[in-house]
Each structure stands twice: as C-alpha cells, then as structure tokens.
Amino acid sequence: MMKAATARAFDGIGGRDTFSSPWMRFELSPDSRVFIDLRATGLLRAVGHDPTLSARPEPTSLDLEDGEVVVRFQVADIEPQGDLTESDRRKMTDNMRSAEVLDAQRFPVIEVRARYEGTAEGGELRGELVVRGQPRRFAATVRATKQWDVIVAAATWEAKLTDLGIKPFKALLGALKLENWIRLRMEARFKRPSTP
Predict the structure, then answer these.
(1) What residues does 37 pair with on adjacent strands?
(2) By percentage, how much of the chain surpasses pLDDT 70?
(3) Minimal CB count within 10 Å: which of 78, 91, 131, 196?
(4) Is 196 within a domain?
(5) Which of 156, 164, 119, 160 is nearest to 35 (CA)?
(6) Cα 30–chain centre separation
(7) Angle at CA of residue 136, ends 25 and 186, nearest 5°
C-alpha cells in the first residue's frame, strides 16, 4: 500500500506520468546539507550568538519502491557556521570531535536509517539516528517540493543533547556553554541518476 502511494506521489516529475522500475531511484545531490542548531548560554548568549554547525552528507540514493533512506555524514566534516575567528572555529571543532562529545576517533560517522511515508508535498521520516555508535529513535516531518527533475526535501527534528548520549559542553574558555537542546535541519536535494 505504501509503495503504491509513494510512487503516485512522485508521478509527473520530469514530464513522466508514471514511473517504471529504472525511474524509481533518486540520488542525493552533493549540495544537500545537514544543519545542527545549538543554544548557547554564558557570554555568547548575551550577544545573541547561538552556534550552528553544518555538514554535507555522503552520496546515497533513495529507492521509492521501498521508501528506505540511509544517510551518512562524517564527524570530521562538521564545521561551525557564522563569523567566528579562525582560532575560535578550530577550538570549537576540536572540542566537538573530542572523546567527551562526539568521539570522532572511535565513531567517525553519524548515520540516519529511516523510512519515508508521504506524498510529494510532505510526509513522515521515521527511523534511527546513530550517534556515538548508539541508535536513537526519531520521527521528523518532511516538506517536499519539485523543482523540475529535482525533489527538494526539508525535515526538522528537535531533542536534548543528552538524548543522543552527549553532555552539554563548554568551549572557547567557558565563553560558550550549551543548553541541553539540539535541532537537526536536513535539506536534501534528490535527482535521477545520470544513467539508469
């Protein structure tokens, strides 16, 4: 039932009324992004600076016949955004990759394993977010739009850092202290493969 509904949801992309099997697979475009929003306390909170990190997911594909999604991104590729100095950016990155936070040496990859159910306009993404080697259940609402032959999908999920096995940490000599809160924003762009 879900397979048929999913196939109908994406009918008409690129001028086709229906999908045959070779057209059921989409590739994740390299300009897709994952944003990680955090809330600051301490001195940076006083100046309204809530840090945002970002990463580019590894290449993957989405098969509409089963709706399964697996997205991976490297901890080493997560970078702070905004107008931080190079020194502060390096300190924050080192702290984030440390054994006390994401432990990049032991767990170099963060992975999303999920299933999408919905229409071309939106739906639900449900599955597991694997952080520090431990899976955590999540559910996120997805909003999707069509831009020619590209599906642009956006999803947001909020939780506590401790839900992911991460203690709220301090950085920048104590100027940055984090609240026990995190928001993940996934902005994915899917295209058909260049060759079937």
Answers:
(1) 52, 183
(2) 77
(3) 196
(4) no
(5) 156
(6) 13
(7) 45
